[in-house]
Design a protein that fits this description.
Oligomer: single chain
Structural class: alpha/beta
Number of strands: 11
Shape: elongated
Radius of gyration: 24 Å
Helix content: 25-40%
Distance between the termini: 52 Å
CATH architecture of the largest domain: 3-Layer(aba) Sandwich
CATH class of the largest domain: Alpha Beta
Number of domains: 2
Strand content: 15-25%
Amino acid sequence: MHKKCVALLSGGLDSILAIRVLQEQGIEVEAVNYVIKFAACIPTNGENAATKAAKILGVHVKVVDITEEYLTVLQNPKHGYGANINPCIDCKIFMLGKAKQYMEEVGASFLVTGEVLGERPMSQRRDALAIIERDAGVRGILLRPLSARILDETLPEKEGIVDRKRLLDIKGRSRRPQMALAKKFGINEYPSPAGGCLLTDPGFTRRVKDLMENKEFNIDNLTFLTVGRHFRLAPGTKLAIGRDKEENDTLETHVGANDISLRLKEYQGPLGVLRGMADDGSILLAARLVAYHTKLRNEPSLKVEYWKGKSGDILTIAVKPASLEEVEKLRL
């Protein structure tokens, strides 16, 4: 076997450490990062977390957007969902299958992940790890350095490419061993271990299920879900409202040609984006909801501006802000 591997690098602590452990043994590492736009696991602050981690590790990382391909996995997972709408086992199988192809392209001989036995309840049980290896076609060539000494020996270990004695035996949900190892390696910059895939978040899950039920399940709408408060006004009609300036700015980038944008006319306030069947009744209701999410919600009447697309003609409507009861009834 070649002394070169392909490592899945999310940018999180586990994947960083898995690579660093192998670098200590002189293994050449080629990293790959698979991006799902609407389910980003790691806070990036504007920079891809894997790209940032690759700089720290001194490795090349190939960033691949798999969002469109992933929709099929999300809708029809062979191994089902976790507690929410997270197809964790199928997700890992999908990514490892793609990583295996990349491994062959770059002349590497085995794969590496930062998985830790027992850390995640659905995909990192011992039986789940075995299923993932089998269905991804990577049995024997997938090395998990952080738990390797309590898992079956892999080909790179058997053939002496990797020294099994210098691998780890970490297990369970505590991140203390990883944090201690990071300190030992002098790795001080890494995302909070408390993060997780958005598909495990109950609030985000409700929004995704709503899209499925309303036959609006596509990349555009899924990406739209990641910012703001969301409301289902009617079948085929949704509203998103920004929570702050940053979310307003992000929502503005998602505005499509047929969307309706709404703001208070004479005061600062949130941006609302109405998507779908935008008749007069829907616009009126959306304007009332936008008016509610301001400090002026107790005013008897507020003027709300609205326009179509990025720069349509601006119209004005005077509305009574919605009540808390209406807001809670429509909130997703």
